[in-house]
Amino acid sequence: MISLVFYFLPNWLHSHIIVASILVNFVISKYVQKTGPSAKYFLILGIIYNLAVIGYYKYSFFFGEIFYYLTDVDMGLTKFILPVGISFYTFQQIAYLVDCYKEKDVNYSFWHYSLFVTFFPQLIAGPIVHHKELLPQIMRLKNLGFNAEWFAAGAFIFIIGLAKKLLLADNLEVLATEVFSHADKGEYIGTFTAWVGALSYTLQLYFDFSAYSDMAIGLGLMFGIRLPINFLSPYKSESIVEFWRRWHITLSTFLRDYLYIPLGGNRNGSIGRYRNLMLTMLIGGLWHGAGFNFIIWGGLHGFYLMANHAFQSATRNLNLSSFKPFFVLVTLFFVVIAWVFFRAETLNGALTITSQMLNFSPSGTESIEVQPYMLLLIGFGFFITQFTPNVSQMFNYQGWKTPDGWQPITIFLDKFKLRKGAIAYISCLLAASLMFMAQPTVFIYFNF
To answer: Where, by residue number, does the polypeptide cross the bilayer (predicted)?
Structure first.
């Protein structure tokens, strides 16, 4: 009930969507588990229903514009305000239906299933959780007492995430928005400013999504639930393949298990693998947003993955360990280029910034003045991404992989001998974060 109140209060106009989604999917899941050919038809019906809901609210206006461009026929479609969290709870329920069809013995009550879908720490922007990992924990909650250590660890992690959002992501957003808004308007952006804007957004998105992931884990622990790691220092990656094992881990896992592998995975040789990688990433790009820039972003990452696999095959017998720092820089360079398309509102704006980053355009008069403190913030941000431990390393947190052997806050304090120092540190982070809460802020992934 608390999770539904959490969702309904700011989104009451869309409350019927998630309620209907839960009811329909739960009923269909019962028929999907039956034997006989009808189970497959109900599975197809369930998938069509979920895709139709997300397609109507998220993509109908986009495809209507394409149809109008091609045929000059206006379908009169309205651009909806996207229901918060619809991409996440829709994908989560599609995965549930597929698992019900495969396993045939998924037996949960309606109330347990409803909490699985609406559990508020991860409802809005993930992680996309698997029923086998979350529902057993939910069912055990009534037998567990209050765990002060878990609550303390959860509060610690939550405050770290809050600080990332308010102190880093939101301050980086100011410069990133200014640069991209000028580019989207067709104004001149110099090479230096283009790089500053792109790097600002690269860090803004990193700390914004890392913050939400930490806060979700922290809130989950405070309620006695272990959520999966969804973000694992992706800018330390030495390849695009590794990047997608560290960035939005649960989405990457979903796309692999429910799209890439059903398409054929790497079972049909290199050509089949490359085709499936590109299709998976194009769909992954479209999942993030209804726009050509998101499709281009997905296509770029599809191309990156193809090139990465080809490079790995060609250098399989070579020892390239001494080139690791170079590989990190190269990976980050291509990730930054792709983020420009992810962030820009228009294709022209993205091309303006990327062309200036690569210095392909003539010079002109700069319209944006970059303040020195922003350069310091960018440098500090990249230092954090490369040289500081993440939450998993701080607390030896492995999500649900090692539920019995996990000792979160104790390991952190015993390792660094900073019990009083840790409390002072987290108190300062909380105080500084509260000072920056004058204006309401929104997580970037709320838009997806």
So the answer is: 12-29, 41-60, 80-98, 110-130, 150-167, 188-209, 285-305, 326-342, 370-388, 422-446
